[in-house]
Automatic annotation (TrEMBL), chain A:
Coiled coil: none
Low complexity composition bias: residue spans: 125-140
Record-linked PANTHER family: ABC TRANSPORTER ATP-BINDING PROTEIN (PTHR45772:SF4), CONSERVED COMPONENT OF ABC TRANSPORTER FOR NATURAL AMINO ACIDS-RELATED (PTHR45772)
Annotated transmembrane regions: none
A GO CC term assigned to this protein in UniProt: plasma membrane
Protein name per UniProt: ABC transporter ATP-binding protein
Keyword Cell cycle: no
Sequence ranges of Basic and acidic residues compositional bias: 141-163
TrEMBL record, chain B:
Protein name as annotated: Branched-chain amino acid ABC transporter permease
Primary location recorded for the protein, binned into one broad class: membrane
GO molecular-function term, one example from the UniProt record: branched-chain amino acid transmembrane transporter activity
Organism the protein comes from: Cellulomonas cellasea
Topology relative to the membrane: Multi-pass membrane protein
GO cellular component: plasma membrane
Chain spans, region Disordered: 336-390
Length: 290, 390
């Protein structure tokens, strides 16, 4: 069962999916999917094309109505409409880019800042609850110090304007000097980072990343890896869908494998790697090649 | 974002524009009043289409709604013994309420419709409104509603002519309408509108309720169009179904595209074209040695032809419209100066809007000047030609 493999250090349960079933007409896109993501945890959702990964995201985001099952965010039912997500502390990036091509880089990120006030209290009583990470390596991450600074800087400043928050989010991802450019003028990896900045500027407690590494090169992926670790270190729960298996296995605390709309494996990356069902369904060549 | 600066600019622009009316003869002031009236409508339309991405072919109907709202309220107030400023402001409130309600209903429907379906709905409205207005007894059929005459206030009577006074009032209303739209565009609402226009799903995931944003855009656009309609009624003292035909709706849209979609400067240029182009074309055909029959035939239709050719030429050559072309030229000049000067230090400064941002102005007459094509010899007193005729 999901949850059993949850590392002991993880915080409160942020996302709980129980018995999620989605049917499109006669086609069962998802059948009885269970999924947990705890605060501070990074969970990878993988599976072959058409396994239903993005449908899980869409059901969590209110873009698809579940046929059966429940989705709860921080113990409360997930918002029924996508526009309720940001106030509930959930941010999502879209497969591809999902940017606003008619807006500048800064404006794109500002849009993400509109829904929340900024400051750690934006998402209600559970906002300040930060799960301490285990592992000295993560606490020593240089990003952690920066995040602490940022938190201190913004807590008293609750009327902070959206542009200022957006600029800071851009600076965090080394995009500050791109702020005034039309977003289409940036190379693809930087556009990907703008999309990530737009999600992060809302200071989410649950971050859903749909193929964040898609189309990125090795250096960009390493940078993305560091960014996700940094975000998780602040106590944010991260769920990501990704085809890039090495990236997922390296980064994630837990990996959930979907095949034909069912969960066929759920556990630590090394356990999932060795799981014969996974090997058969999806990872076969990748794993035996090692 | 800087609301105070916008308000100061608007006030300054209005004072300048009012000063400029002293340089114009009465007919030019009459035309200026019409430009201000159409500016209200084109400014609202450019915000709706350019910023929120909703196409309306029915803005003449929204002008009509405002016009009837104004006329009926003014007549009711006249009956109650109110006159002067109170009556005018009451009429404006009537225009805002009626056009706002029509805009709200349209917006609520529009939030569920996309692209051609919304355009179809607004097209239906603009066809239906004159027909309905003509058959409702309270609106007095095809003859329309006449309103009481608002003359120049007594203290100013020795100073200015009626047309100049009307231009002042029209400019003041347009300044309020355009300033409101500038504040909307530069604020969070404007950013939300552009986000929804570009990608509704991504906007919703960022916490924006697309339907609410679209309805807000429609109401704002309808109210400003209604203000434009009320100014027309104030100037002509009457409102009738024939004054707001389908042709006017399309002309407003063409004006907005020619001016530059999403740009308020473009909306001002478009409003100038709506008023001046038919008159210019008429002046030219009158001056040419043509047989009377030909002149009569060209009257009205030639202006449409010129508008059409202008539209095609601009969309092909400068898709950003007149305002876009101006901005591009300015950017080129600045780039050339920067390349020649200070050692190519590249420093990007965050600025809003980009090409779509017109300098906030409540002054329709200032941009009007450069847009007025070659000065033509004209007689000041000639039959008044408004674009709604013919």
């Amino acid at each position: 069962m999901p949850g059993q493999e949850t590392p002991a250090h993880a915080g409160a349960m942020r996302l709980q999916v129980r018995g999620l079933t989605v049917r499109f007409g006669g086609l069962a896109a998802l059948t009885d999917v269970d999924l947990d993501v705890a605060d501070g945890q990074v969970v990878g959702l993988i599976g072959p094309n058409g396994a239903g990964k993005t449908t899980v995201f869409n059901a969590v985001c209110g873009l698809v109505r579940p046929t059966a099952g429940t989705v709860t965010v921080a113990g409360r039912p997930a918002p029924r409409t996508p526009s309720g997500l940001a106030p509930a502390g959930v941010a999502r990036t879209l497969q591809g880019l999902g940017l606003f091509p008619g807006l500048t880089v800064l404006e794109n990120v500002e849009v993400g800042a509109l829904a929340t006030r900024g400051g750690a209290h934006a998402h209600g009583p559970d906002g300040p609850a930060r799960a301490p990470r285990s592992g000295a390596a993560r606490t020593a991450d240089p990003g952690d110090a920066r995040t602490a600074d940022q938190r201190d800087a913004r807590t008293p400043d609750r009327r902070d304007d959206t542009a200022g928050r957006a600029l800071r989010a851009l600076a965090d991802l080394d995009l500050a000097d791109r702020a005034a450019l039309p977003v289409g003028a940036l190379p693809y990896p930087e556009q990907k980072r703008v999309a990530l900045a737009r999600a992060l500027v809302a200071e989410p407690r649950l971050l859903l990343l749909d193929e964040p590494a898609g189309g990125l090169g090795a250096a960009d992926i390493a940078e993305l890896d560091a960014t996700v670790r940094r975000v998780a270190a602040t106590g944010c729960a991260v769920l990501l869908v990704e085809h890039h298996v090495d990236f997922v296995m390296e980064l994630c605390d837990r990996v959930v494998v979907l095949d034909f709309g069912r969960v066929i494996a759920d556990g630590r990356p090394d356990a999932v790697r060795r799981d014969p069902a996974v090997t058969a369904a999806y990872l076969g060549i990748e794993v035996t090649a090692r | 974002m800087n609301a105070r600066r916008t308000l100061l600019l608007a006030a300054g622009g209005l004072v300048l524009a009012i000063g400029a009316t002293f340089l114009l003869d009465p007919f030019r002031n009459y035309q200026l009043a019409l430009v201000a009236a159409y500016l209200c409508a084109t400014a609202g339309l450019t915000v709706l289409v350019g910023l929120s991405g909703q196409l309306s072919l029915g803005h003449a109907a929204l002008m009509a709604a405002g016009g009837y709202g104004y006329a009926l309220t003014v007549n009711a107030l006249t009956g109650a013994g109110v006159d002067g400023v109170g009556r005018f402001l009451g009429g404006i409130v009537g225009a805002v309420v009626v056009s706002g309600v029509v805009g709200l209903l349209l917006g609520l429907a529009g939030a569920r419709l996309h692209g051609p379906y919304l355009a179809g709905l607004t097209l239906t409205l603009v066809v239906a409104v004159p027909a309905v207005a003509a058959s409702v007894p309270a609106l007095q059929g095809d003859r329309g509603v006449r309103t009481a005459f608002d003359g120049v206030p007594a203290p100013l009577r020795s100073l200015i002519a009626l047309e100049q006074w009307q231009a002042w009032v029209a400019l003041a209303v347009a300044a309020v309408a355009v300033t409101g739209l500038v504040l909307l565009r530069d604020g969070r609402a404007g950013l939300r509108m552009r986000a929804v226009r570009d990608d509704e799903v991504a906007a919703a995931l960022a916490g924006i309720a697309p339907a609410r944003v679209k309805v807000l855009a429609f109401v704002a656009s309808a109210v400003t169009a209604g203000l434009g309609g009320s100014v027309l009624v104030f100037v002509t003292q009457s409102v009738s179904p024939g004054a707001f035909p389908l042709g006017l709706s399309l002309l407003l849209l063409v004006a907005v595209v020619v001016g530059g979609l999403g740009s308020l400067l473009g909306a001002a240029l478009g409003a100038v074209l709506v008023v001046l182009l038919p008159w210019l074309v008429g002046t030219v055909t009158d001056a040419l040695p043509l047989p009377d029959a030909v002149v009569q035939r060209l009257d009205g239709t030639l202006a449409s032809l010129v508008f059409g050719v202008l539209l095609i030429a601009l969309v092909a050559g400068a898709p950003g419209g007149l305002a876009g072309a101006l901005t591009a030229a300015r950017a080129r000049r600045r780039a050339r100066r920067a390349a020649g000067g200070a050692g190519g230090r590249r420093r990007t400064r965050p600025s809003r809007g980009g090409a779509a941002a017109a300098p906030p102005t409540g002054d329709p007459s200032a941009p009007a000047r450069p847009a007025t094509p070659t000065p033509t010899p004209s007689t000041p007193r000639e039959p008044v030609r408004t674009p709604t005729e013919g």
